[in-house]
Amino acid sequence: MLKLGEGKVCVDATFGAGDHSRAVLAQMGGRGVLIGIDRDEQAIAAARVNFAAELQQRRLHLQRACFSQLPAIVEQFSLQGKIDCLYADLGFSSTQVLDPARGFSIYHDGELDMRMSQDTQQLTAADLVNQRSQEELTHILRTYGEEPRAARIARHLVQARANTPITRTHQLAALVAACTNHRGHRRHPATRVFQALRIAINDELGELRQLLAAETFALLRKGGCLAIISFHSLEDRLVKRSFLARTASPHAGLPRSLPLIASDPPARLIKPFPVQPRAQEIYTNSRARSAKLRGLEKLS
């Protein structure tokens, strides 16, 4: 989908542990250049060690930043309108979820944190759970977790925190499980709650809108590709609608009687439907089960 080759210029907007970038660098040859960004200071620190050779060769450039800072970063390298491919793997990484100190996981007990950047962000998930009103918690769980039992869970959490502050991941997961009927469900009953808190803490949807904005699309050269892997419906809905809007004719919605010059849409979908993992991949990597990959090619 990325049409990789010798000498390409790419941007990895969610560098993480660098697995995608390692594969991309291998296909771009010695003249290829990759800019990797991540908002997690721990990910960038690890990448400077694990990709020391690529950094020394100046094939890789690392920047700690959010999606909203991407246009400014590309401008530093004087590459506006020259990017061949830009890709993002949304959500949190396996490294983050397996670290109890980060507080992302239902299954690993730790402080209820969930910040993508622990040294620049002040508000934690524990702050939300213990300080927001019942109405605000209901809104967060319903809006960012699409949780149908949001009001019941919010009421239960407010009642529980009156006796003991909610500060641990296992504590929160147990409280949610206690007030919901989850027999026979494949997922833990607190899955949507954890998702909602993580999205709210890190403004993930706001950052994704920045990634999908016109300023980011303008960074691509003609024929360049934007590819995004999403993991839940809120993300995928934003990506899908943004991509479809860019494939529409510039004259869409205007009266047919107007004397307009025919023109092509600014982009095309690389595949009409999202690419999803097959059964074998899900069997070997269960975290991929909800992944959806969409790609967009810039035409003008």
Give a description of the structure.
It is built from 14 helices and 7 strands. The chain has 2 domains: 9-89 and 205-298, Rossmann fold; 95-202, Orthogonal Bundle (DNA polymerase, domain 1), CATH 1.10.150.170. α1 links the parallel β1 and β2. Strands 3-2-1-4-5-7-6 form a 7-stranded mixed β-sheet, with helices on both faces. By secondary structure, it is α/β, with parallel strands linked by helices.
Short description:
This protein is α/β, with parallel strands linked by helices and 300 residues long.
Q: Helical residue percent?
A: 40-55%
Cα-atom radius of gyration: 21 Å
Tell me the CATH superfamily of the largest domain. Vaccinia Virus protein VP39
Question: Strand arrangement, largest sheet?
Answer: 3-2-1-4-5-7-6
Calculate the terminal CA-CA distance, rounded to whole Å.
Answer: 18 Å
What is this structure's SSE topology?
Layout: E1 9-12, H1 19-28, E2 33-38, H2 41-50, H3 52-56, E3 60-64, H4 70-76, E4 83-89, H5 94-97, H6 125-131, H7 134-145, H8 150-161, H9 169-178, H10 191-202, H11 204-211, H12 214-217, E5 220-230, H13 233-246, E6 267-269, H14 279-284, E7 292-298
Parallel strand pairs: 1-2, 1-4, 2-3, 4-5
Antiparallel strand pairs: 5-7, 6-7
Helix pairs in contact: 7-8, 7-10
